[in-house]
């Protein structure tokens, strides 16, 4: 079992909220703890947005609760009607994320009895807001998220696994069921990578020079994800058409295998190039004299189809399915070249920037 940073932050935020409520001598500090649970967020920027939404949501909840308590008293039916109105208003103003805490505020205020109702209502509202601000401070100071490190680490790990399975698939050395299960897991991990990219994109830079660097990095990471998607689609095609691939003429099958080995190695080296760990003289390896250009691949493909038709081998040589595989290979190659261009541009203009630390364990 692995405890992530958000789990630890939630516990610390609850303790800090209860401590502040006790320090300020607020009655019912439990409401501050409850507010901290709802307010903790996976990123600093989302915590900032949450504070704004929670302030608006709790003001709506507190206002409705006070009005209903003054007009209808503290009857349980009045609490339910107030809750319905608060829900409707929150949906109207698109504050659904703060709905739960707003309803907690309604119940917390309307359950207060006595002549000092307004004062107790204000104190309860303040207690809830203490919990919200406590969660924001914890998220800001305690284990601040480093989504760039986590994003690159996940992309690198995911791509390593895709490359490993692709090399097995093109050699038809992988077991069908195992590859199918691996594809499901890889797709799930791809979704996690896209979520991390969203978190990293939301992070704000407060210095102009860092904003430009961040903008270039976002373009590179978006292309990294796109290229990984193309490699995953290629693996999917190799898995779907493994029978057709096995029936290809030996020479053509070896050509596909060799080309994929080039591209997969190219992808590995691009990730190393981004971190500055690849020697400059190796960065242009794709221009090797033995590396076939795309038009040469298509010419060989056309000649092979013509030869197969002459020999009446259409039953064993499926040009239709092979076209799917070749289109994925060419698409993958184009994305790799675009990624290479972006990385070279980034290293040219921001070569002195600190490299991504792959060894970092603390996100």
TrEMBL record:
Entry-linked Pfam families: ArAE_1 (PF06081)
Keyword Transmembrane on entry: yes
Superkingdom, taxonomy of origin: Bacteria
Compartments in which it is found: Cell membrane
Transmembrane segments: 12-40, 60-91, 120-142
Membrane protein topology class: Multi-pass membrane protein
A cellular-component GO term for this protein: plasma membrane
InterPro entries tied to this protein: ArAE_1
Chief location: membrane
Alphabetized UniProt keyword annotations: Cell membrane, Membrane, Transmembrane, Transmembrane helix
PANTHER family attached to this UniProt entry: P-HYDROXYBENZOIC ACID EFFLUX PUMP SUBUNIT-RELATED, UPF0421 PROTEIN YGAE
The name this protein goes by in its record: Membrane protein
Lineage: Bacteria, Bacillati, Bacillota, Bacilli, Bacillales
């Amino acid at each position: 079992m692995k405890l992530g940073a958000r789990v630890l932050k939630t516990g610390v935020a609850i303790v800090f909220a209860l401590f502040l409520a006790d320090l300020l001598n607020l009655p019912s500090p439990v409401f501050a703890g409850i507010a901290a649970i709802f307010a903790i967020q996976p990123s600093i920027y989302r915590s900032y947005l949450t504070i704004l939404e929670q302030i608006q949501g709790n003001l709506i909840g507190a206002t409705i609760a006070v009005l209903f308590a003054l007009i209808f008293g503290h009857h349980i039916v009045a609490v339910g009607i107030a809750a319905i109105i608060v829900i409707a208003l929150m949906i109207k103003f698109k504050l659904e994320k703060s709905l739960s805490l707003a309803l907690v505020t309604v119940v917390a205020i309307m359950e207060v009895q006595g002549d000092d109702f307004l004062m107790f209502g204000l104190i309860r509202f303040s207690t809830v807001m203490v919990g919200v601000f406590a969660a924001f401070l914890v998220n800001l100071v305690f284990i601040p998220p480093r989504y760039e490190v986590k994003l690159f680490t996940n992309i690198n790990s995911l791509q390593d696994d895709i490359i490993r399975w692709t090399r097995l698939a093109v050699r038809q050395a992988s077991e069908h069921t195992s590859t199918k299960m691996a594809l499901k897991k890889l797709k799930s991990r791809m979704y996690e990578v896209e979520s991390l990219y969203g978190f990293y994109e939301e992070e704000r830079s407060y210095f102009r020079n860092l904003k430009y660097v961040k903008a270039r990095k976002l373009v590179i990471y978006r292309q990294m994800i796109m290229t990984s998607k193309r490699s995953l689609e290629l693996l999917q095609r190799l898995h779907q058409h493994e029978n057709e691939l096995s029936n290809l003429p030996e020479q053509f099958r070896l050509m596909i295998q060799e080309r994929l080995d080039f591209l997969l190695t190219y992808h590995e080296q691009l990730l190393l190039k981004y971190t500055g760990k690849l020697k400059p003289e190796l960065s242009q390896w794709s221009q090797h004299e033995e590396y076939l250009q795309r038009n040469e691949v298509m010419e060989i493909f056309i000649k092979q189809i013509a030869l197969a038709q002459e020999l009446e081998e259409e039953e064993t040589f499926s040009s239709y399915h092979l076209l799917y595989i070749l289109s994925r290979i060419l698409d993958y190659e184009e994305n790799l070249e675009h990624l290479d261009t972006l990385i070279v541009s980034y290293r040219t203009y921001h070569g002195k920037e600190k490299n991504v630390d792959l060894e970092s364990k603390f996100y």
